[in-house]
Amino acid sequence: MRRSDLSGVTGERIVILVTDGEETCDGDPALAIRQLRSEGSDVRVNIVGYSIDDAELIETFQSWAAVGGGQYLNAPDADQLAKAMRSALEIPFDVYADDKFTANGISGGTRLQLPTGNYQIRYRFDGKEMTKAVTIQSNAE
């Protein structure tokens, strides 16, 4: 990937690195990810590992995703690859109660269990931080 690849894009950028094994091009992906993020670009790097069963490689890819502010998704087969690609495009969010961090998640991900109360959901969209007020009510009547 070249820096110029993202030059005309505004807002948050999601880079998805799909890999089926070790880095063999004599590059340094962790350094490249650090440089990309240090340039001030609003970039998140998610890594999808296709048919990876080597624990050490998975750990490496997880560390690269962490450097990129993203996540590592393992896809052992073609069905899981499609699911992982969809997940890689989902938006992360943070939940606050009275300006106190409470939880975080990813849109379309695992449901959060929060007690009854008022919350603010904070996420980034189109390069801007957005906030949405949410009230959770008890089902008991």
Q: Could you explain how this protein is built, in words?
A:
The longest helix has 13 residues, at 55-67. It is globular and about 55 Å long. The strands form two sheets. Strands 5-4-6-7 form a four-stranded antiparallel beta sheet, with no helix packed on it. The N and C termini lie far apart (56 Å). The chain has helices at residues 29-38, 55-67, 78-88; strands spanning 13-19, 43-50, 72-75, 92-97, 100-106, 117-125, 128-136. Helix 1 links the parallel strand 1 and strand 2 (43-50). It is 24% helix and 35% strand. The chain has 141 residues and is an alpha/beta fold.
Give keywords.
141 residues; alpha/beta; three-stranded parallel sheet; 3 helices; four-stranded antiparallel sheet
The helix count comes to 3
Using only C-alpha atoms, the radius of gyration works out to 18 Å
Q: What's the helical proportion of residues?
A: 10-25%
Low-pLDDT residue intervals, each spanning 5 or more residues? none
- What fraction of residues sit in β-strands? 35-45%
End-to-end Cα distance: 56 Å
The shape, in one word, is: globular
| Count of extended strands | 7
Q: What average pLDDT do the residues reach?
A: 85
Largest sheet: 4 strands, antiparallel
Along the chain, the helix and strand elements come as EHEHEHEEEE
Computed structural class: alpha/beta
What spatial order of strands do you see in the largest sheet? 5-4-6-7
